[in-house]
Write a structure and sequence with these properties.
The structure is a single chain. The chain is α+β, with helices and mostly antiparallel strands. It contains 2 helices and 8 strands. The protein has an 8-stranded antiparallel beta sheet with strand order 1-2-3-4-5-6-7-8, with helices on one face.
Length: 144
């Protein structure tokens, strides 16, 4: 009887913390966009001294709550921007992927242990259900 009560309490506790697929998607969407838009930097922006329009390096993705993403990169001294659509896709319990255009990425979002205000998002490109460790991004978001 005592084991039955303990097992019941454990299942109730686990059930209380379990998320539905839609809750996983909504949670990831909220973390990515901040319910509006967020710029996630994967390469620190560096600019020429005294010139705001000339970049030396940099790259970021701006995720918006209207399911568009702006991919910004420094190319030959100029900032380029490409707008695409994106979506969060639930794969299996606690596994959410991010789809940009036709590319699918494993999604992992967590807090930086050394800098508590910084959130890290790792995207690892997948193809045919397998991770391509050569094609991955690490993004940082730090509130202003």
């Amino acid at each position: 009887m005592k084991r039955l009560i303990i097992a019941t309490l454990i299942s109730i506790t686990i059930g209380a913390y379990a998320q539905t697929p839609q809750e996983f998607i909504d949670d990831a969407f909220s973390k990515i966009t901040g319910n509006n838009e967020r710029e996630w930097v994967h390469e620190t922006w560096k600019r020429e001294m005294g010139a705001q329009s000339i970049c030396k390096s940099g790259g970021s993705f701006i995720f918006k709550s209207d399911s568009t993403v702006v991919l910004k990169d420094c190319v030959l001294g100029s900032t380029t921007e490409q707008e695409h659509t994106w979506e969060v896709v639930f794969k299996e319990p606690s596994n959410v992927t991010l789809k940009i255009i036709r590319d699918v990425f494993e999604l992992n979002i967590y807090q930086d242990k050394k800098r508590p205000l910084v959130t890290i998002m790792k995207l690892i490109k997948t193809k045919d259900g397998k991770s391509d460790l050569e094609a991955n991004y690490t993004f940082y978001y730090e509130p202003e």
